[in-house]
Amino acid sequence: MSIRIGLIGAGRMGKVYASTLAYTISEVDLVAVADPDEATLNEVAGRYNIPHRYKDYRALLDSKEVEAVVVTSPTGTHAEVIMSAAAAGKNIFSEKPLSQSLEACDQAIAAVKRAGVKLQMGFMRRFDPPYVAAKQKILEGVIGKPVMFKATSRDPKRTSLEFAKRENSGGLIVDMGVHDFDLARWLMESEVTRVYSEGACLAFPELKDVGDIDNTVINLRFANDAIGNIDMSRNAVYGYDIRTEVLGTEGSLWIGYLQQTATLVLTRAGVTHDTVPYFMERFGIAYAEEIRAFVRHIVEGTEPTPTGEDARAATAVGIAATLSLDEQRPVLISEIDR
């Protein structure tokens, strides 16, 4: 059975999903795309042989050709598009975050429940084979009780100044950190209750002009009294560096890798190897697997994960961590989510 998918948003992430949907996943047909920018719309529709194109995503939602949608529109529009898609009776896969506002998260979740459609959020790391294997080890009790979470998320280059503005992306902590906040809850099997952020603009002074930072460290406290730490950076000039450790009472799990290919160059000058260039090289399999899971949930009538509630919880941690950065103090999640 093939699910007919419409893609809403043809920008950077839209192109990633268009390629995945068109070339990697046999279980779907990419039948429509919507984007307000005509040049981008025509480029993506032409490149991936998408038969139907729309400048207004609402026209795509009106199409009977479309059974489900993949939402990759700008961050600030996700909740709005999800609510419209739910009202149109479409099953929904959406890139993270659900919203930068808890109120908008709640409205989107309520709309999905009212309509009785499915919503899966795009936290692709949960579908990455190393993370899947680590989660299974935790469930099997291999490392005992998880007591400490440590994560590194470092991009090899600065994002655009326009995207870096908090009103567009939520800033470094919300934009990048939401993946780690989701992993923290998922791997530690406990909610984050308190955060304390330190951060600064250290490598790209121009980010300060748009209200963002380029490096941060965030400490976490969990409901079960476990602790955690996340470091994030925009200036990992050596490559795309995504690693996680979960320390348990009986051992530890190290997840991720920096070396892309299993080749070492050994000369008189030393020993060298390459590094992961960027996110598609690292998580290409995960992007495909999360869409396959979405299709299975539609076909089998099961409930998808990660859920809207998972996305809301990650957003709440991000908002609290940003407040902690601004006010230079520990912040309880309950302060912003009463």
Descriptive keywords:
Dihydrodipicolinate Reductase, domain 2, alpha/beta, 40% helix, 2 domains, 338 residues, Rossmann fold
Polypeptide structure, described:
The protein has about 350 residues and is α/β, with parallel strands linked by helices. It folds into two domains: about 5-115, Rossmann fold (3-Layer(aba) Sandwich), CATH 3.40.50.720; about 125-285 and about 315-335, 2-Layer Sandwich (Dihydrodipicolinate Reductase, domain 2). The protein is built from twelve helices and 15 strands. It has helices spanning about 10-25, 40-45, 55-60, 80-85, 100-115, 130-140, 160-165, 165-170, 170-190, 280-300, 310-325, 335; strands spanning about 5-10, 30-35, 50-55, 70, 90-95, 120, 145-155, 190-200, 215-220, 225-235, 240-250, 250-255, 265, 270, 330. Strand 11 (about 240-250) and strand 12 form a beta hairpin. The longest helix has 22 residues, at about 280-300. It starts with a strand and ends with a helix.
Element layout with pairings:
Elements (H helix, E strand, L loop, with lengths): L2 E6 L3 H13 L3 E7 L3 H10 L4 E3 L2 H6 L5 E4 L6 H10 L3 E5 L6 H14 L3 E4 L6 H11 L6 E9 L6 H4 L1 H4 L1 H18 L3 E9 L14 E8 L4 E7 L7 E8 L2 E6 L8 E3 L2 E3 L6 H22 L7 H20 L3 E2 H4 L2
Parallel strand pairs: 1-2, 1-4, 2-3, 4-5, 5-6, 7-10
Antiparallel strand pairs: 7-11, 8-9, 8-15, 9-10, 11-12, 13-14
Task: Give a quick account of the main beta sheet: strands, pairing sense, barrel closure.
Answer: 7 strands, mixed
| Tally of helical segments | 12
Write the H/E string, N to C.
Answer: EHEHEHEHEHEHEHHHEEEEEEEHHEH
Portion of residues in beta strands equals 15-25%
Radius of gyration, in Å, reads 20 Å
Please state the average pLDDT score: 97
Helices and strands: which structural class? alpha/beta
**Unreliable sequence segments:** none
CATH-derived architecture of the largest domain: 2-Layer Sandwich
Shape descriptor: globular
Which topology of the largest domain does CATH recognise?
A: Dihydrodipicolinate Reductase, domain 2
